[in-house]
Amino acid sequence: MTIAITGATGQLGRLVIQHLKTRVAPDRLRALARTPAKAADLGIAVRAADYDRPASLAPALAGVDALLLISSSEVGRRAAQHRHAIEAARAAGVRHIVYTSLLHADVSPLSLADEHRQTERMLKDSGLAWTILRNGWYTENYMGAMAGALAGGALVGSAGQGRIASAARTDYAEAAAVVLAGAGHEGKTYELAGDTAYTLDELAAEISRQAGRTIPYRNLPEADYAALLASHGLPAELARAIAGWDVDASRGALFDDGRQLSWLIGRPTTPLADSVAAALKQA
After folding, report:
1. Domain that holds residue 130
2. Within this chain, do residues 144 and 276 fall inside the same structural domain, yes or no?
3. Which residues pair with 219 in a beta bridge?
4. What is the CATH number of the domain that holds 221?
5. CA triplet 74, 145, 215: central angle to 5 degrees?
6. Cα–Cα distances in Å, from 38 out to 8, 46, 50, 73, 123?
7. pTM strictly above 0.85
8. Average pLDDT per run of 10 along the chain, which is 283 residues long?
9. Is residue 209 part of a domain?
């Protein structure tokens, strides 16, 4: 079986390939990349593929049995780009598509969810075998705020007391590798999240413990948090979106306690303390 990975040079794609190489022979893997030169270090065959150039996709997928469709990073254009990939996969004779969706995409209030819902419908209507990996929040999404929290003396957000069941990016990558290299996953939707949920108060407490000084959590109204993010250079639209996602988190949008992720990978998900320790080293 030959497996192709879209977005192979991205953070998730690279980790998926690392995990796959421990499970299948590297000569059975194909890295699909918009800029093939960026994939030269992956140690597997690389094929040029661009969601926005549909003609490039079917040739890149020739001889491929299973495709990992990592959701595009271009919010607002994802549905069309994913349609191009699914249509090309069907034309090329790909048998099985594994798609990285969003936790509880069918009911999620997150603004990101609609394009995932559209893609899930496309997959189910495609006539191909499919598996949907509904990835929860990456712990790294919050670790990116570590340097700012340390510099400013507080972790800031709008998530209130919402519980966040995040997991490390490598956990989600390993789950994708397990599904791609394994059997019995066709037609299944997995809700993937970390084993232990936390509030941003609890995250701040863990940062404080490891940093050796008090870093409190400061909860802001949505508009104030968006304004703060914009004042640090984020585009206004993205700042509003991030603040909105935090508010959704306060209402449970990032919580799940089904432990399907740790079941798939056969181990506990990466502890929050480990992610904080790694982030502190880089802060």
Report:
1. 3-135
2. yes
3. 157
4. 3.90.25.10
5. 160
6. 9, 10, 14, 17, 29
7. yes
8. 96 98 97 94 95 91 97 92 96 97 97 96 97 98 91 96 98 98 97 98 97 97 96 94 97 97 98 96 83
9. yes
